[in-house]
Design a protein that fits this description.
Layout: H1 10-13, H2 20-29, E1 32-33, E2 41-44, E3 47-50, H3 54-63, E4 71-75, H4 81-92, H5 109-112, H6 116-120, E5 137-140, H7 149-153, E6 157-162, H8 165-183, H9 190-199, H10 207-220, E7 225-229, H11 230-235, H12 237-247, H13 254-258, H14 261-268, H15 271-276, E8 284-287, E9 290-293, H16 312-325
Parallel strand pairs: 4-5, 4-6, 6-7
Antiparallel strand pairs: 1-2, 2-3, 8-9
Length: 336
């Protein structure tokens, strides 16, 4: 199914020709912010997109061809994307690999399930995605309304992982500081980071818009969007993994359950196992237009680390954003 992106910029993203000049003009016309975090962000289709990635997002919207069996993993940065990638990769590929020869032993989850907007469409507006093994797994941070129309219309499934904003904010501060240090950029304080986060001027933000887009879609079309919470995974990984497997049409058999396959996967994908692997200790993977140390994706992996960082007034402010933007729609988070 070919994509025809419907948007306010449909003259550009819907055209067949690759019109670099028009794309450059569009990007130059967008509101921009430097923020304090990493590269410039531009307000594209109502979300703050790293400016350097907008052309990739447009190529994805214009050229991506969905297949019915595709699985799209969506998230905010620092919501548990790495964990979700490892888990879903393991569920989907369990008939090809067992735990003793899983590629997770030698590759970082971001190498196994690349992000479309930063990796697959990073250097090539028309990457060859047809040859990928099916079901194909894709990952994205793009908000729901800006996904290619063919993803929304086809039978392919979306799994969205969400995490309480207090921990996500703290995690993102640590992560972006690690990038800044790697690149020798000036550092910034938690307070500065917090301010941009609450203003919504954060990657793929405002965070409440991105979360609510997927939340509402999951309520309206639960067969299409599965809304997973990091905190629920921490609390009941086996139960949640079974739901994930059912959602993607690959439920665990009784034999597998009795044989301990679920526990094997959850153990393989646990924070400790992944963090300690040599594959996740050394080298770097591509994020933005820069490379990030693989170990930066594994920091503490806990629920409630925010208590070690946030002042009571910071907590009040984030809680009031959640109360105003999310609670009225039935979305609540466990924060400890
Ligand atoms: P912390 O910084 O709070 O430790 P993302 O994968 O979206 O970039 O999110 C990274 C966050 O998820 C980090 O949180 C990281 O430690 C945590 N994480 C990574 N792998 C995990 C795993 N297997 N289990 C639980 N948490 C994990």
């Amino acid at each position: 199914m070919a994509c025809q992106q419907l948007s306010s910029h449909s003259a550009i993203v819907g055209s067949e020709e690759h019109d670099q000049e028009a794309i450059d003009e569009l990007i130059a016309s967008l509101p921009q912010t430097k923020g304090v975090v990493g590269p410039f962000l531009s307000l594209y289709q109502n979300f703050w997109c790293p400016t350097s990635r907008i052309a990739n997002v447009i190529a994805f919207q214009r050229h991506f061809q969905a297949k019915h069996k595709d699985i799209v993993l969506a998230s905010q940065p620092k919501a548990g994307t790495t964990w979700l990638k490892a888990l879903v990769f393991s569920v989907v590929n369990r008939s090809r690999f067992d735990i003793s020869n899983t590629p997770l032993l030698t590759l970082n989850p971001h190498e196994l399930v690349p992000h479309v907007e930063s990796q697959q469409y990073g250097n090539n507006p028309r990457p060859d995605l047809d040859s990928l093994a099916e079901p194909r797994l894709f990952a994205t941070h793009i908000p729901y309304p800006s996904l290619p129309e063919c993803i929304k219309r086809s039978d392919c499934r979306i799994i969205y992982i969400c995490r309480n904003p207090l921990d996500t904010m703290v995690s993102s501060w640590h992560f972006f500081l690690a990038i800044a240090r790697l690149e020798g950029q000036p550092e910034w304080s938690l307070e500065e980071h917090f301010e941009t986060y609450c203003q919504g001027k954060i990657w793929y933000g405002p965070f409440w818009e991105q979360i609510m887009g997927y939340w509402k879609e999951s309520l309206e079309r639960p067969h299409k969007v599965f809304f997973l919470k990091y905190e629920d995974l921490k609390e009941d990984i086996v139960g949640q993994l079974k739901k994930v497997a059912e959602f993607v049409g690959l439920p665990f058999t009784e034999e597998e359950e009795e044989g301990g396959v679920i526990e094997e996967i959850t153990k393989m994908c646990s924070f400790k196992t992944l963090k300690d692997l040599e594959a996740n200790q050394s080298n770097k993977v591509l994020v933005i237009n820069t490379k990030v140390e693989k170990r930066s994706f594994f920091r503490k992996g806990e629920v409630g680390d925010w208590v070690n960082h946030l002042t009571p007034s910071m907590v009040d402010r984030l809680n009031s954003i959640m109360l105003e933007k999310m609670s009225p729609f039935g979305l609540e988070f466990k924060t400890c």
